[in-house]
Specification:
It is built from five helices and seven strands, in the order αββαβαβαβαββ. The longest helix has 16 residues, at about 5-20. The protein has a five-stranded mixed beta sheet with strand order 2-1-3-4-5, with helices on both faces. A two-stranded antiparallel sheet has the order 6-7. It is globular and about 35 Å long. The model is unreliable at about 135-140 and about 145-169 (pLDDT under 50). It is of the alpha/beta class. The structure holds zinc ion. The site of zinc ion has 5 residues, from loops. Zinc ion binds near residues 55, 57, 80, 81 and 90.
Length: about 170
Amino acid sequence: MSHDAKIDEQHIAQAIELARRGAGDARPNPVVGALVARGADVIGEGWHAQFGGPHAEVNAIAACGEADLAGATLYVTLEPCCHEGKTPPCTDAILAAGIRRVVVASDDPSDKAAGRGLGILRDEGVEVAFRDEPGLIHGFLSFDHVSTEAKRAGDQIFSETGEALRRDS
Ligand SMILES: [Zn+2]
């Protein structure tokens, strides 16, 4: 199945905009934005609004209400979590909703994730795609959350308040 790259680009850009809404209050969690779409149509949007509160993916799925999400695509700025933290794993919510494709702007370099969330989704037959936005792929991770690799790569990095951090030496 081929997907429209332009549509993916637009939806990820929108998810990044949604992420900004959590700036400040999600701390020390990274700010994250997500939306559920079918083709060009956005069904629901969400973001991580508050530390300890539901994650962006769960909020986006909830915002879809009663809509049938079977075969829908989730766009999210960060790899969905797969661990039981302050909230249940987002991978469970994604699978339960029937979403069959997940497009992420960044994997999660933290120890708790490191690709495991994406691995679980793939194991369950969900198509996982990266929509790397140069300079934005690591956006909105808290600085500690960003892999040293990314820091070294000099990608534009945003603090948890949404401000772009200058590439440090
Ligand atoms: Zn999560």
